[in-house]
Fold this protein.
Amino acid sequence: MLKREIIAEDFDGNKYVDIAYFHYSKNEILELEIAYPGGLRNHLIDIMRSGDNFKIYGFFKKFVLGAYGRKSDDGRRFIKNAEQTEAFSQSQAFETFLFELLENQSQMETFFNEIMPMGSDKPSKMTEAQMKALESGLVTEEVKKELLGE
C-alpha cells in the first residue's frame, strides 16, 4: 500500500492536503497481466514508446483510480468501492496527482513500480488460482517468469 500526501487547491482557491492510499493485490495485478496481451508491464512500455498522449493519459487515469482506496481501521483490508473512487476522481487532489505523474516520466515509472505488489518482494507463495492461471497459457512466458520471480 502506498500513501501519498497530495497538495491541491480547492474550488475556492484554498490549498489543502489530501492523504491518498493506493494498492493493488497480487490477484488484481494477475488479472491485469492477463487482460493485456504480453502483460501489464509490456503494455505500459508499448504505450510509452508510442508517444500517444491520449493512450498514456487513459492508462494512468484507469491505473491510478483502480488502485485508490482506504485501509480498514483494523489494517486487515484495503477497501475499494465505486463511491469513494468517484469522489476521488472528482477532486482537485486527483487531478493534481495525475498530472504530476503525466508531466514527469520518472514519477510515473516510480509510482508504477512502487504499486506493483511483486516489486522487490518477489512472490514466494502463489495461490492455487494464480498457479492455474499461469499454467492455463493465458499469460506469456515472459510474464510467467516475472510473476514467478525468475
About this structure: The radius of gyration is 17 Å. Residues 53-67 form the longest helix (15 residues).
